[in-house]
Amino acid sequence: MKKKKFFGMVAVAALTLTAASCSNDGPLTASSAKKAIEKEAFFQKNTLADEFKTGYYESSESNLDKLAQLQAAGMINYSTDEVTEYVTSRQWVGGWYGSYQNVTREIKHWFVNVSLTEAGAKLVVDEPDMKRKDILKDLKANKDYAEIIPDYMTVGHKGAKPVAAPAVEEAEEVVVEEVADTVEEIVEMAEAVEETPAPAPANKNAAYEAALGRVNSEEVYVLMCQFKVVKCKEVFCPEEMKEAGKGQCSFVWKVTDKTPFGYVLMSSQIPGEGYLNTGSAEFVFYNDLGWTVSKLDLND
Fold first, then answer.
1. 92: closest CA among 78, 102, 83?
2. Dihedral angle, C-alpha 260, 78, 9, 122, nearest 10 °
3. pLDDT category, 281, cuts 50, 70, 90?
4. pLDDT of 16 over the 50 cut
5. CA pair distance 115, 285, nearest whole angstrom
6. What is the pTM of this model?
7. How many whole angstroms from its chain centre is CA 115?
8. C-alpha span between 34 and 42 (Å, rounded)
9. Cβ neighbours, 10 Å, residue 115
10. DSSP string, 202-238
11. Distance (Å, whole) CA 32 – CA 239
12. Helix (H, G, I), strand (E, B), or coil: what is residue 110?
């Protein structure tokens, strides 16, 4: 799944095109400009989506409030494991007359188990629509495309025949058995045999390592909101621009259908629902497509 940053997408979309021919379908109007803008990717139903992680994974502490808000909104269910990691390092302790000592510090980690509710799953999209409406239609067949790979692409190098190393005559090992000469030595050797090794210290990081071993997550695209064109105005298409198949206008747009994911995850990037914004657009005319956007700026 390709990664696409939402806040970069909604900044400025610019695509330079060349007019196929002069317009013979009348000058650009507010109505034709609005229809052309609505075909752009930003105004498609499944475009304004971003990635959301589900499953078991380590979360930042600041992200826990967002998960709590999404759960309160009925989008997800989640649980949290707080785990401590113990990290030991050599540090100088005691100032001028100190010494290096082993110092252990505790690091808190939060692991979360996140799942979508039925309501949250309804906002999942396979992949955002990142192209103009007519282009998406042209490429529709790619959805089920699977390339047939030739069999020879699975063949790998089998390696060269190993060359045996020359035989080396090993010297006979001489074992010298230690023999006690005195009673004291016999006692010392007996005590050494009877000594049992000290038990290994308990692994303080067992819980943290177990949590890391459980990590298994998946990222899905969830809808944030939709953009809607309210109206087009200041349409500029004098006779000479009409003959060249060019035009331009400004327009008013707003956010609609803002989802809980949009409110919680993109509150600083998405304008408030219903708030009116202004943008500008430039157009070219194609014989087969009519008036088409060549440059779109949502932050006019």
1. 102
2. -60
3. very high
4. no
5. 47
6. 0.70
7. 17
8. 13
9. 13
10. P-TTHHHHHHHHH-EEEEEEEE--EEEEEEEEEEE--
11. 16
12. strand
**Which phi and psi (to 5°) does residue 12 adopt?**
-135, 125
Concatenated DSSP letters for 151-215?
GGGG-----PPPPPPPP-PPPPPPP------SHHHHHHHHHHHH--PPPPPP-TTHHHHHHHHH-
User: Which two three-digit tokens encode residue 43?
Assistant: 């105004």
Contact present, 225 and 262 (Cβ < 8 Å): yes
Q: What angle do CA 238, 248, 271 make, to 5 degrees?
A: 155
Neighbour count for residue 84 (Cβ, 10 Å):
12
What's the distance, CA 130 to chain centroid? 16
Residues 254 and 277 sit within 8 Å (Cβ to Cβ):
yes
Beta bridge partners of 247: 283
H/E stretch holding 292 reads strand 290-297
One-letter identity of residue 61: E
Q: Tokens 């105004």 identify what position?
A: 43
